[in-house]
Amino acid sequence: MEYLPIFLRLSAARVVIVGGGHVAARKADLLLRAGAHVTVVAPRLQEDLRNRAALGELTHLAESFAPAHLEDAVLAIAATDHRDINTAVSEAARARRVPVNVVDDALLSTFIFPAIIDRSPIVVAVGSAGYAPVLARWVREQIEAALPSSLGALARFMGERRRSVQRALGPAARRAFWERVVRGRTGAQVLAGDEPGARRSFDAEVLVSQLTTSATAGRSALGEVYLIGAGPGDPDLLTLRALQLLQQADVVLYDRLVPAAVLERARREARRVFVGKGRGAGESRTPQEEIHELMVRFARQGLKVARLKGGDPFVFGRGGEEIEALARHGIPHLVVPGITAALGAAAGAGIPLTQRGLSQSVTFVTGHPSQDDSLDWRTLARAAQTVVFYMGVGNLEPIVARLRAAGADASRPAALIERATLPGQRVLRGTLAQIAELGSRAGLSPPALLIVGEVAALPAAAEAAAVPAPAAAETAADMIQPI
Ligand code: SAH
User: Fold this and answer.
1) How far apart are CA 65 and CA 17, in angstroms?
2) Ligand 1 centroid vs 378 CA: distance in angstroms?
3) Structural domain 224-339, CATH architecture
4) What is the pLDDT of residues 331-371, one digit of tens each?
């Protein structure tokens, strides 16, 4: 390097410009922007300089140059058309060890002005050591075009928050955190001029970093997996944490229980990967092993993977198997609970799952025919409790038959809730003896839950008073099927 690029703090420092023409005016403008105290030595000034002098922005000495003018100067600039004057300035400055720039004369100069791209506080300087100023300007134009005009706003946004991040996060987490701010949503929002949005994303980002650092400390190169419960369907029933993590994810793995309205809440750029059962009859679901492999593979690429699951990941969601697989491969992960379908359905239908004097316990049971052998039907058939069957729609008659055979009363109340919390939610009520018939006559289809117990008969008053699911959500086509 023939020259060392440095950034000089000039605030209130005395800089002397010799010359009063256009070139001098340009240099004066630049130096004033950097906060220098500018003195212009010249018998006459061009208009800009004259105005600035009149306004007191700079000092004008209407004299011929003399070495004494450089007293206390930290920089000197010679910008006259006279070679002898420029030489005199250069010599005087060098004698005093004051860095000097002689315009268009590298030999007489001890420093040169780079071409600059000013996105203060981000400033890029380009120099060619005097070899090719035009080339340097061309390079400057390229960079100028590549850098967003609001880059400075982003730098300030980050600068204002450095201290609070220092307090909130450990040193290992901070760098990865700032990387995410710059490359992620927060940065994009600042650059787009959406500061309120950026502030929200930033706060969410801090929160998430605090949550994840314990699991991921020191392994920021590795991606991570968020196992997120998406709730029963209504996107408003997502948790705040689910939402925050969806905003961060690079990849979203989802299945059929996750409606499009929920998927829409994911980061726009996130890649969405469907890993559920195919829609057509006879199409097979993605094998669980394959889902594990996908999660591991994406995480190993350093990506943030949101594994979205209907309801809660740990309630008939195979979440346990998934975190086991992740742990086996050493992939950092986080589980975010979701509102399980039973809770969504209970709220949607106005059926309290427990109630003083009526039901002292609630049991979530699989109604899937392949998994019901090991159930203790005698316990499930007992009175004064609530049993919620998941995945039982196609299996209603056998479920009822087994409960009856285990001693459940034919008049025991039951309810079917289809598409709980979603537009088009249906609630069918009856007795154990009637419920299978009611379901098939109504053409009930998944997803739906069966609730058995005294509470299922509780007054429809609660249901009538319930606020209907917001219309904003979803259509029937996107839901379905057990996992
Ligand atoms: N992990 C999920 C359950 C997955 S098993 C949870 O916690 O909710 C799939 C079963 O959940 C479906 O067969 C159905 O019985 C039930 N289910 C899921 N969403 C539902 C909804 N919106 N309404 C009614 N039942 C639902």
Assistant:
1) 10
2) 24
3) 3-Layer(aba) Sandwich (3.40)
4) 888 889 999 999 999 999 999 999 999 999 999 999 988 77
> Domain 342-482: which CATH class?
alpha beta
Task: Report yes or no: 126 and 115 within 8 Å, Cβ to Cβ.
Answer: yes
Question: What single-letter DSSP state applies at residue 210?
Answer: H
Q: Is 422 in the pocket of ligand 1 (CB under 6 A)?
A: yes
Q: How far does the chain reach from its first CA to its final CA, in angstroms? A: 64
Q: Which two tokens stand for residue 177?
A: 């955190």
Cβ atoms of residues 261 and 237 within 8 Å: no
CA distance 257 to 355: 29
Lowest mean pLDDT among 38-52, 183-197, 256-270: 183-197
- For domain 14-113, give the fold: Rossmann fold (3.40.50)
* Exposed/middle/buried for residue 137 (C-beta within 10 Å: 0-12, 13-18, 19+): middle
* Ligand 1 contact via 312 beta carbon (within 6 Å): yes
Which ligand 1 atom lies nearest to the CA of residue 338?
Answer: 7
**Which sign does the torsion angle of CA 327, 331, 332, 338 carry?**
negative
- What is the structure's pLDDT at 481? 32
Q: Is 6 helix (H, G, I), strand (E, B) or coil?
A: coil
Rounded to the nearest angstrom, the distance between the alpha carbon of 385 and the centre of ligand 1 is 21
Q: Which atom of ligand 1 sits closest to the CA of residue 339?
A: 7
Phi, psi for residue 116 in degrees, rounded to 5 = -120, 150
Distance CA 409, CA 62 (A): 110
User: What's the pTM?
Assistant: 0.56
User: What is the position in ligand 1's atom list of the atom closest to the CA of 348?
Assistant: 23
Active-site positions read 255, 277
